[in-house]
Amino acid sequence: MPTLTAFAGTFSTFARSLRRIVVGDDEPVAVRAALRPRMRVAKHALDRTPLPRAGVGSALAVAFIFGGWTLGAGQGVTSNPVVDAVAGLVGMQATDIRITGQIETSEADIIAALGLGAKGSLIGFDADEARARLMELPWIRNAAVRKLYPGKLAIAVAERRPAAVWQLNDRLTVVDGKGAKIARFGITDLLQNRFAHLPHLVGENASLSAAKILPLVADHPIIAGQVSSYVFIAERRWDLELSNGMSVKLPEYGAKKALNRLATLAGEDRLLEREVATVDLRLSDRITFALEPAAAKTRAELVSARLKAMKKADRKL
């Protein structure tokens, strides 16, 4: 059975090429001196190793092991040019990466999390470790990584579903249905009008308590369609800020019953279309209204005019 000595000429040329990849044509004398002992030991071991009959791919794979051991070990860098070069020659570069399931996560972030390096080498690639890095991305709920040789990777991700935008002081955060933080809501999101369809929660721990109030309001489309913000007051109860400027004060207990009363008034008396600034539903036996400033002024003028008319009528009698 032939040994690797038969490939000495070709291998020597290949090794010199590998050295040029790593340290260039002007490699320092110290580097060459450091490599000579490794080269001698490796050559002695390879001379004694039987070589199976195989094609060019097997020879290049052996050359990769030898070159990586002799040259890569001395470089001290994460991305080894030898590994990258040989990976391309033996068909172990990721030339086809298929990503499915992502919406909010960019392809660039996903590829960076795979840790393939600048040349996309699959040498030493660990699918489990890549999946673990993907799971650290803020939007990723689940991920699967499959290697399909030669040169293919299939990445399937499932993202977390945004449920609301939570505001605490000046900080905005996208949260999921359980109130857990997903990602910051930035100026780019605002300019692109992203997440405008999501409820806007305001206040300390509002995101963690929203699961109770959101379904109650959603049961009344006539109200839900006009709510612009859900404000959590003293971590006990909710105020609904409507798009027309009206504020609805809900009680700490019995919010469902209060919303039923509000929906009735909105449907039968068209309350939400009137010039009312505040609807206070905190008391179970009454509803208190506060008019908008202009409406309050008009009402005061009407009341004053009516009183004057009544006094004038009394004098005539």
Architecture overview:
- The protein has 317 residues and is an alpha/beta fold.
- It has 3 domains: 4-89; 96-159, Roll (Ubiquitin-like (UB roll)), CATH 3.10.20.310; 164-294, Cell division protein FtsQ/DivIB (Rossmann fold, 3-Layer(aba) Sandwich), CATH 3.40.50.11690.
- Helix content is 43%, strand content 20%.
- The chain contains 11 helices and 12 strands.
- The strands form 2 sheets. It has a 9-stranded mixed β-sheet.
- The longest helix is centred in the last third of the chain and has 24 residues, at 293-316.
- The model is unreliable at 1-8, 17-31, 51-79 and 82-91 (pLDDT under 50).
Topology:
Blueprint: H1 8-23, H2 29-47, H3 56-70, H4 81-89, E1 96-100, H5 107-114, H6 127-134, E2 140-148, E3 152-159, E4 164-168, E5 171-175, E6 181-184, H7 187-191, E7 200-202, H8 206-218, H9 221-224, E8 227-233, E9 237-242, E10 247-249, H10 255-268, E11 276-280, E12 288-291, H11 293-316
Parallel strand pairs: 1-3, 4-7, 7-8, 10-11
Antiparallel strand pairs: 2-3, 4-5, 5-6, 8-9, 9-10, 11-12
Helix pairs in contact: 3-4
Keywords:
elongated; Rossmann fold; Ubiquitin-like (UB roll); 317 residues; single chain; alpha/beta; three-stranded mixed sheet; 3 domains; 11 helices; nine-stranded mixed sheet; disordered N terminus
Provide the helix percentage: 40-55%
SS-based class = alpha/beta
Tell me which CATH architecture of the largest domain applies here.
3-Layer(aba) Sandwich
CATH topology term of the largest domain = Rossmann fold
Mind summarizing the main beta sheet?
Answer: 9 strands, mixed
Strand content: 15-25%
Number of helices: 11
What is the topology, as strand order, of the major beta sheet?
6-5-4-7-8-9-10-11-12
The pLDDT mean sits at 76
CATH homologous group name of the largest domain: Cell division protein FtsQ/DivIB
Question: What is the CA-CA span between the terminal residues?
Answer: 135 Å
Text of the CATH class of the largest domain: Alpha Beta
